[in-house]
Amino acid sequence: MIQFDTDRRLFSISTAGSSYVFGLNEKGVLQHLYWGDPVAAADCAPLLGSRLHSSFDAALDRDAEEFAYWGGLSYMEPTLKVRWHDGVRDLRMAYAGHRIERADDGKETLTVVLRDEAYPLEAHLIYGVRPGHDLIERHALIVNTGDRDVVLESAQSAAWSLPELRDYRLTHVTGKWAGEFQLRSASLTEGKKVLESRRGFTDGHANPWFAIDEGTATEESGKVWFGALGWSGNWKIVAEKTAFGRVRVTGGINDFDSEWTLGPGERFETPSFVGGYAAGGFGAMSRGLHRYQYEHVSPGRDLRKVLYNSWEATYFDVNAKDQIALAERAAMVGAELFVIDDGWFGQRSHDRAGLGDWTVNAEKFPNGLDELIGKVRDLGMAFGIWVEPEAVNPDSDLYRSHPDWVYHFPTRARTELRNQLVLDISNPGVKGYIVDFMSKLLGEHDIAFVKWDMNRTITEPGMQDHPLNRQKELWIRHVRSLYEIWAELRRRFPGVAFETCAGGGSRIDLGMLRYADQAWPSDNTDAFDRLSIQEGFSYVYAPKLMTCWVTEAVSGMNKRVTSLKYRFHSAMTGTLGIGANLNEWSEEQLREAAALVAQYKEIRPLVQGGRQYRLRALEHKSVDAVQYVGAGDMGEESVLFAFLHAQKLGDGLPRLRLQGLDPDKRYEIYGMEVDGAKDDGPEVDGVKGDGAEIDGVKGDGPEVERAKDVRSGRALMRIGVELPLRGDFDSLLYRIRELRQP
Ligand code: DGJ
Prior knowledge:
By secondary structure, the chain is α+β, with helices and mostly antiparallel strands. It has three domains: 2-297, Distorted Sandwich (Beta-galactosidase, Chain A, domain 5); 307-610, TIM Barrel (Alpha-Beta Barrel), CATH 3.20.20.70; 612-738, Golgi alpha-mannosidase II (Immunoglobulin-like), CATH 2.60.40. Helices cover 19% and strands 29% of the residues. The strands form six sheets. Strands 6, 7, 8, 9, 11, 12, 14, 15, 19 and 20 form a ten-stranded antiparallel β-sheet that branches. Strands 28-27-26-23-22-21-30-29 form an eight-stranded parallel β-sheet. The radius of gyration is 27 Å and the shape is globular. Mean pLDDT is 94; it is low at 676-705. The chain binds (2R,3S,4R,5S)-2-(hydroxymethyl)piperidine-3,4,5-triol (DGJ). (2R,3S,4R,5S)-2-(hydroxymethyl)piperidine-3,4,5-triol is lined by residues 311, 341-342, 386, 453, 455, 501, 503-504, 520, 523.
């Protein structure tokens, strides 16, 4: 898969569906040559060579450099920028060798070593490819081989050079609290488009992922180049287009307010930036990324449990009695994991106090936490707990004893957000405190799941126990320390699953997902809003990693009213959870919920492990649809979720064409109904949605598919299925199973 052509001085990385080629030109510059459909590396040889345009420009080969060190004639976003002890700020990196290694699991790694001509510094450019994946894992290792300090002003993970395209359309996500993962795309013009976080964590305002296509790629077709960075702190991805029409995407740890002093003999490892090329559109890109996460990133291989979380039911008002009542109801509807959220510790009766004091509140739990845990376990569920270890309320015993443990500048006010400050977790005392209290909590109680939250950004980035000339290391030290804490806890408690949460989806990235089994994408649990949040999430991250809760009929976010079925369907497209106050649900609602949970468990292997297809063909009719395909016990299986936002002017819906099936197989298709189910949403104003008949399809359920229909994969994909959706916020779930000939 990885080869070096000694005669032509070409490196090539080939996967089943892509080639990536770069070489050493006559000036010794490591020049990117090709990335796209498979080609023979030798055919790229004519592309190698430097060209100069004018004395005002960099040599054009440097615009396509594999690792763009800053020095000499280079004006694009650099991948490495340093400051030497003598004030010199210039690099001249020359090729110094390479090696290709193969691990037992088939992973191949290429390491190309560049060395500065005059100063003792090496950059190791590392490329990893895994069998069966059209992805390249890149990062860099910067090594100080001398006996003086060198300051890294910027050390990026990788620069991805794009081929010449007619247009460069950049797709990315943007967002905000309660509105994360919103897709955006726009053509790049000359200059830079910067996606970044400066807030101390991954951030819900942007996510470290990009995709570029020629402007014509769809879900099903077209060439897409993409990359996802695994870093949970300040990051930066710069898509830069030159006046010569070249586009390079550089990414890694944000260099803003950041420096790292590399002492004699020390190494600095940048985070992994995974890049890929997909010839089958955005859908193929996402499926490739999902499979990579399932096979090589996510720590837990098991199916994720159906969870119940008590946050929206009780907020801070938790006590043993109410939580036990909730647990009984959660078990009744089929939850497998009961998670108590914020409010169980210290003086935490609101968000103004107690954060940092991780002892069980004796008034709320007079018999200790184990009374609740025991009950939950007796009910057949696992127990999970919420923590926010990186933050502290000033009104807490922890802060009163250690006011200097938080990031701050001595001469400045400490900005409080949600009445809390951020702990300097790279301080060994703080780190020890967190590992100790977490170990005590997980060691003394039967806890199987931790929801790790973080509800504010970092401000006043000053560390009290760190040298003044190294204060800008904070952003990196926080993330590294966080990873070390999670790694240590996972090592000590291998049976505990973790969820990453940061006031919603502000810390979801390939770095965090190495430690977290699942992620909380947003505090917005409105089932309709969630569809676009979940869709944006799915461009990069896998459905199994996405926790989705069913909450109340009237959304606390926006007062939107939706049916139980709709809310369940929306949440069933990822890892299902329930976050409503079940103590107030009627018997009938509980029964319907139990039936829907049971359905989810039936289709869970497909949702959590199958290939996901976003069906966007009926978006203009306000239909969202997503399909999962995989192998079931009886052959190939699939499920389809479809959601109608708002029907207008009596319009019926065209058929929806499915994807991913075998055209020559025959499939049985039927609607997954819940017997006796009653919509609790639309009934609010007494109107039941069984209106007129359109095209012989009655509008109150998937009548056609309910009578198991048999169709060929070809028919399902070319002609499509009926969608008897009506009114506002209607939804359906179809199950599609291969029909085996007797
Ligand atoms: C923010 C999270 O996103 C919520 O789910 C909840 O855990 C609260 N924090 C608790 O304070």
